[in-house]
Design a protein that fits this description.
about 300 residues; alpha/beta; 10 helices; 13 strands
Length: about 300
């Protein structure tokens, strides 16, 4: 395809790294058409990192040559060059690699928004369900920095890599006694905050470990659906339940959280684990790794820029 040309208020980015999300595999499969009615042919990809090489009229000319990350507003990211709105661009600090910046574009902003929504504090015990994914890894890191105790839930062989993140406890959800493992960590009180990155039955079981007056975030759905929570049971226990709507951010808030995530990376609080990268012409293999649950941490696509 010919190189895209930025219009008024837009910039052209020479793309180095492409953010890759589980959600993109779902949209590509044709699922969720009531929410994402994409019809081929289209270019997937909602986020890129690279360098600004061309600027449209009305946009800040000082952006030329700057290292940036940006959301593409739904599609167009799986490309060597991408046009984005100038207002969507966030400059990357010199000390932060573009690969790290791409990994934080969605997951870093989402993790920070989740911690603000659930109001994680220094006395809280936090249970992270699905700690081996890109978002889960960052949730463990933030919990270590902000909470009193963090327990990380993952499966099988991935536990060894999650252990390197330094949680206070590791819980193997593949074992039949995983519920007893959780109770051994948090006791009768339960976890003050439960972050469900998986959904389905695992997330629903996680809700039962939430302390009275605690907070449960049902934002994850890699299991195929979000956790279904009995609102009456939640009300009876005084548990605040939030879902994916809590992290559907405005353009302003998204930029603010991306900037904060890059700052946290520069200061060493957030360090996304890049589990695997694929060249752009193997984007299908990247999706297969995510869908097959073989991926650990963040999956990214790279170009030859």
């Amino acid at each position: 395809m010919p190189d895209p040309v930025p219009g008024a208020g837009e910039v052209l980015i020479d793309v180095d790294v492409i953010d890759t999300l589980w959600l993109e595999t779902m949209v590509r499969s044709g699922a969720g058409q009531e929410y994402w009615p994409m019809r081929p042919p289209y270019v997937p990809g909602n986020g890129v990192a690279g360098r600004v090489v061309q600027i449209g009229t009305g946009a800040d000319q000082n952006l030329r040559g700057r290292r940036v990350v940006a959301h593409t507003r739904g599609e167009g990211g799986y490309a060597e060059r991408a046009v984005v709105a100038a207002e969507a661009v966030v400059e990357v600090p010199d000390s932060v690699d573009l690969t790290v910046a791409a990994a934080l574009l969605h997951d870093g902003a989402t993790a920070l928004a989740l911690f603000d929504t659930t109001k994680v504090g220094p006395r809280d015990g936090v249970l992270v369900i699905g700690a081996s994914g890109g978002l889960g890894v960052l949730c463990v890191q933030l919990a270590r920095a902000r909470a009193a105790r963090v327990a990380a839930v993952a499966r099988g062989a991935k536990l060894e890599r999650v252990a390197r993140l330094g949680p206070d406890a590791l819980i193997d959800s593949a074992r039949p006694d995983w519920a007893e493992q959780v109770r051994a960590v948090f006791g009768e009180h339960g976890a003050d905050v439960v972050l469900d990155n998986v959904g389905g039955p695992l997330g629903e079981a996680g809700f039962t470990f939430t302390a009275r007056g605690g907070r449960f975030s049902a934002h994850g759905a890699p299991s195929g659906r979000f956790a279904s929570i009995d609102r009456q049971a939640a009300d009876e226990r005084g548990v605040s339940v939030t879902g994916i709507e809590a992290v559907q951010l405005s353009e302003h808030d998204r930029r603010r959280y991306v900037q904060q995530a890059l700052h946290e990376a520069a200061s060493g609080v957030l360090a996304p684990v890049i589990g695997q990268t694929f060249p752009l012409d193997q984007a299908g293999a990247a999706h297969a790794a995510i869908e097959g649950r073989t991926a650990f941490g963040k999956t990214l696509i790279t170009t030859n820029a």
